[in-house]
Every structure is written in structure tokens, then in C-alpha cells.
Amino acid sequence: MPSLTGSSSRDTRTRIRPAAPERLLDLWRRIRGKSFTLAIARTFAALGGHTMIEPPLRLHGARRIEIGSGVFIGPGSWLQVPNDLSASEEDVIVRIGDGCSFVGWATVSAVIGVTIGERVLFARGVYICDHDHEFQRAGIPIMDQGHRNLQPVSIGDGAWLGQNVVVLPGAQIGRGAVIAANSVVKDEIPDYSVAAGSPAKVIRSWSPTPS
Q: What is the pLDDT of residue 175?
């Protein structure tokens, strides 16, 4: 029966729902990621619960890498601790805190120490290392010359690193700091600051809001 307004009593509004293929794709991605994470979990020094690592992943020295709970590491990432005499084979060299999120295509390479706090956000293509390649021995391929300029790196809780940020040996990034896309960090960035450029310089700072 027509309504008093002259429109049909049947609700003809379009309901927007996720397309079935999209839901299936997301489900498949989650199942694949969880299965892959479970398959490699015991290779790490520690791997917290509810963490997901999506393949493909390049991994070297996992027994010296510790990953917290609720961490997401997107596809195409590379985690490595190269063989080096600078630390004991039993030492944990890379520590990734609870709740961190790497969008993907991230690289973390450490010889003596990379420490990442909790709930740090990494955009696509972030590169973090605590060493350089030695290169001054003529006649020997650089990849065979070992490492130099070994300096630990730390990234504080709640920081955010934009796309393609490079973090070099000795960098210390504070709590809640923001590093603009394509920046190169090689020094100390204070807590609650925005830094940009190559090398990254602080362009703004603020006080944390009381909780």
C-alpha cells in the first residue's frame, strides 16, 4: 500500500556493505599472516601473543630478536642481526616493544643494539640501522669488509616515523616524536617534537597532555 507521501512502503535505500571478495581477501590475509607467524615464532628470542608478521619476510639472526605482544609487521620487511664479533651470540640485539605497527617494507638491521619502545608507528619503507659498512680496504668487495661506526639506536614509546624515514647509527628518537616522511635521523630528537629534513631538525615541540 502506498504511503501518505506517495512513496512505496518498501525501503529502497542502498545499504553499503563490504564486497564479498574484499571480505574474503581480508580473511585470507589474516589466516596467512597468523599461520606464517606461528610457523616462525620459535626462531625468535621472544615473540609476544597477538603479534602478526605478514609474509614475505627476510629474516636473519632471529634468535637475537625480541618482539613484544600485539605487534604488526607488514609484508616485504627485513629483520636482521648480521654475524659480528661485537656481541655475544646469546645477546638480544633487536627489541621491538608491545603494540608497534610497521606498515610494510621496513628494514631493521642491528649489530649492537636497536631498541624500539611500545606502540611506535612506522609508515611504509622505514630503514633503521646501527652500523655502516666498512669500505676503505681497496680490492675487497664492500660487502666482505665488515661493519664500522657501531652506535646503538633507540626509538621512544608512541613515536611516529613517516614514509621512507632513515634512522642512522647513534640516533635517539624521543617519546611521542614525529619524524616527517623522507627524513634522515642521525642525532637526538627530543620527546614530543616534530623533526624533518636530511639531516632531521626539530621544527616544532609541545608538552604532553596530562592523562
A: 97
Residues with Cβ < 8 Å from 154, sequence gap 6 or more? 114, 115, 116, 117, 171, 172, 173
Please list, in sequence order, all residues whose beta carbon lies within 8 angstroms of the beta carbon of residue 143, skipping any fewer than 6 positions away: 133
Tens digits of residue pLDDT in 149-180: 999 999 999 999 999 999 999 999 999 999 99
- Residue pair 111/147 in contact by the 8 Å Cβ criterion: yes
pTM: 0.86
Sheet order of strands, 114-116 included: 46-47, 65-67, 94-96, 114-116, 153-155, 172-173, 188-189
Catalytic residue among 50, 60, 131, 133: 133
User: DSSP readout, 2-60?
Assistant: --TTSS-SS--PPP----HHHHHHHHHHHHHHHHHHHHHGGGSSEE-TT-EEPSPEEEE
Report residue 73 as a C-alpha cell: 609487521
Label residue 76 by pLDDT band (50, 70, 90).
very high
- E strand or H helix at 193, and its extent? strand 193-196
Per-residue pLDDT at 197: 98
At 146, give phi and psi (nearest 5°). Answer: 85, -160
CATH superfamily entry for domain 44-205: Hexapeptide repeat proteins (2.160.10.10)
The β-bridge relationship of strands 65-67 and 57-60 is unpaired
Asked if 133 is an active-site residue, the reply is yes
